[in-house]
Design goal:
Length: about 200
């Protein structure tokens, strides 16, 4: 499939089939994440694959909101991948501080999306989880004080093959040309850009 078709296929999956993820597919997802770009080539990330059923259930419990309002599906996924950001070298940290940017979070986001897009290519579903009890997950997985847990990614085969519509703003609402708020020349869409916003 084309890249745009792949992007349209990827979605947050919250219902998983009782089917294991093949090791070779998981490895390709991790390799895609490894190949992601990073600021100063810091490669300031780490991944912990949690597939032991008991440990996975314990980690899953720490991703569920206190009032059980969301993330209650996480234990359905056969694999949870805990995404860490490691501290880069002192020189790199100093440079980033001078720029006033936390490039580490950007790097983790790019690597995580590489992982999720490769998962979609493999026919797998993912969901990035932003709410979790970091301290308890670090205790469960023996993570030392330095690294930070930034994301947990649920991974598995979707219970349904259906790809839902993507509710996204139209391009003209988010793209300007040469100056803030300036539409494409002639107004409307740029030539060759599809109006389609759903798969």
């Amino acid at each position: 499939m084309s890249f745009l078709e792949l992007v349209r296929t990827r979605q947050s999956v919250r219902r998983y089939a009782e089917r294991p993820v093949e090791p070779e597919k998981l490895q390709r997802c991790l390799e895609a994440a490894r190949l992601a770009p990073s600021a100063s080539n810091a490669q300031d990330w780490g991944f912990i694959v949690v597939d032991d059923p008991q440990l996975k259930s314990a980690v899953a419990r720490e991703t569920i909101a206190p009032l059980r309002s969301f993330n209650t599906f996480t234990d359905q996924a056969p694999v949870l991948v805990v995404v860490l950001s490691e501290k880069p070298k002192v020189v790199t940290r100093t440079l980033w501080k001078a720029f006033g940017r936390d490039y580490g979070l950007i790097d983790v986001g790019i690597a995580a999306e590489h992982f999720c897009l490769q998962a979609a290519e493999e026919g797998l579903g993912t969901c990035m989880l932003g709410w979790f009890d970091e301290k308890k997950i670090k205790d469960l997985l023996g993570i030392p004080p330095g690294p930070r847990v930034d994301l947990v990614i649920a991974l598995g085969y979707p219970a349904e093959a259906k790809v839902g519509p993507k509710r996204r703003k139209p391009l003209e609402a988010i793209v300007s040309y040469n100056r803030y708020g300036r539409p494409a020349p002639g107004g409307g869409r740029r030539p060759g850009v599809s109006e389609r916003t759903v798969p």
